[in-house]
Design brief:
The protein is mainly alpha-helical and 169 residues long. The chain has one domain: Ferritin, CATH 1.20.1260. The chain contains five helices and no strands. The N terminus is likely disordered.
């Protein structure tokens, strides 16, 4: 009888480790996307110019501060699941660099508008990563990670709303 219980417990622990690993991998992708969004938002905050400078500068400061807090929460959640975290893989650094070059190009008629449109794209990608994390967490019954993803979706939706409201028609 004890042998059967031991095998069953081992199987449950193995499934739990797989769940933690799968959820943590999803969190790593979300962390990468969020960190990329943070970096480009902070970069644009420094480099925004134009008629609505102060308004956009302040908006982006609010957003990068929110993203910085999210990075910590996402990374700590992955660590809670027992997995190490890596800050931003090379692929995402390239995306940030390309977006920065594109919007800071002097040939751009309205670099501020290009920045805002880029940030809408970056935030949309974060929502997609949140949706994926939410689904994986739900599959494994990880309510805490699912809740984190839902909160991040709401935050990115609000950021997108603010950015879209600031884009000239």
């Amino acid at each position: 009888m004890n042998k059967v219980r031991h095998i069953s417990q081992d199987k449950h622990e193995h499934q739990s480790l797989n769940a933690n690993s799968d959820v943590a991998k999803s969190l790593q992708t979300l962390l990468d996307k969020t960190y990329a969004c943070y970096l480009i938002t902070h970069n644009y905050h420094f480099n925004v110019t134009g008629e609505n400078f102060y308004t956009i500068h302040t908006l982006l400061e609010d957003q990068y501060n929110s993203l910085f807090t999210a990075i910590d929460e996402i990374g700590e959640r992955a660590r809670t699941l027992g997995e190490p975290v890596q800050i931003l893989s090379g692929k995402y650094l390239e995306e940030v660099s390309e977006a920065s070059k594109r919007s800071l190009n002097p040939k751009n008629m309205s670099p501020c508008q290009a920045m805002l449109k880029d940030l809408i794209i970056f935030n949309t990608e974060c929502i997609e990563a949140c949706q994926s994390t939410k689904s994986i967490a739900a599959e494994y019954g990880d309510d805490e990670t699912e809740d984190l993803a839902i909160g991040r979706i709401r935050a990115h939706e609000k950021m997108i709303w603010m950015l879209r409201s600031s884009v000239s028609p």
